[in-house]
Amino acid sequence: FSYFHHKKTADCKYSLISSVFILLTFIGMIFSSLIIIFKVELAVLLTRDISQQNLFYYIAIILLFDVINGISLAILNIMEKSKEYVSLSIVKNTVLVILVLIAKFTDNLSVKNLFFYITISAGITAIFSIFKMVKVQFNLAKKIENKIIFSAEIISNLLRFGLPMIPGTLAMLLLRAGDRYMLTYFSENTLYDTGIYAVGYRIGMIMIFLNSIVSLVYFPYAMRIADNKDAKKSYRKIFNFYILLGGILGSLIILFASEIFYIFIDKAYYGAIKIVFFGVISNYLLGIFNIINLSFYVKKKAGNIAVA
């Protein structure tokens, strides 16, 4: 987001896309290999069951494919190619749903098979992702003479911005994953509490729908107009829009939480109704946080983002 519109020439965008794609795919291969090497330790740590170690073969492959898909989606998003973005997003979910339905009707659905189906859907999506990136690069290549496939200068700039973000990103991942593990290991009712919490918080995450619209639709536009004299006015408008619309949506979720549970959720989870409020408020504040962070991305102040 921060560097794509920094230099608006086709050759710079071509080199940026290919350099990032090569670097992150290479790093993804390294981390996927580490997952396979330490599959026993990860099985014990994450599932408390060593017999689940073979699932981490699937997990390693899925994550590698998801790196490819994630890069492609990010590039399509920043280029504001909404149709391509949506079509690529749909592929993975559609393939997975079809495979799961087939498994359900053939009585062949299990945890292992589900991971296998996710691997297939992620792999097919990765193929589509690569195809779309080749198409994007082909169109950019028409406008340039000297194609630089990997630019050390661009990667150096990106790493100077990105490396300080790693501690902040790890903190966010720990925050999002750690809550359930704290309940699993430390709460009195262990997995029961984890299930109640997960459902209650998930209902609150209906707010993510609005957050995603702001992130996917507005952020690429905001980065493109960053040098425009009216950019700050635009940022204020979207901030006020989110405060108002997010407040209304959040209030409706809280007011009708009981009805949502009675219609969609099994009665075993009704105890989670009373914690929906906290899920709504936390996701509402997260949306505000992301909009405020936008100015730091524009000014390339990675340290501020990491500290936040």
Short recap of the structure:
The chain has 13 helices and no strands. The protein is mainly alpha-helical and 308 residues long.
How would you describe this protein?
The structure is a single chain. With 308 residues, this protein is an all-alpha fold. Helix content is 79%, strand content 0%. The mean pLDDT is 87.
Which features does this protein show?
globular, 308 residues, 13 helices, 0% strand, 79% helix, mainly alpha
Write the topology of this structure.
Elements lengths: L9 H28 L1 H9 L7 H24 L3 H24 L5 H31 L10 H11 L2 H22 L4 H14 L3 H17 L6 H25 L1 H8 L11 H23 L3 H6 L1
Helix pairs in contact: 1-3, 1-5, 3-4, 3-5, 4-5, 7-8, 8-12, 9-10, 9-12, 10-12
What's the pLDDT, averaged over the residues?
Answer: 87
Characterize the main sheet: none
Order of helices and strands: HHHHHHHHHHHHH
Structural class: mainly alpha
Instruction: Give the termini separation.
Output: 18 Å
Count of strand segments? 0
Q: What best-fitting shape do the alpha-carbon axes yield?
A: globular
Radius of gyration in whole Å, from Cα?
22 Å
Please indicate the percent range of residues in DSSP E strands (runs of 2 or more). under 5%
Task: Give the helix level as a range of percent.
Answer: over 70%
Parts with pLDDT < 50 across at least 5 consecutive residues: none
- The tally of helices reads 13
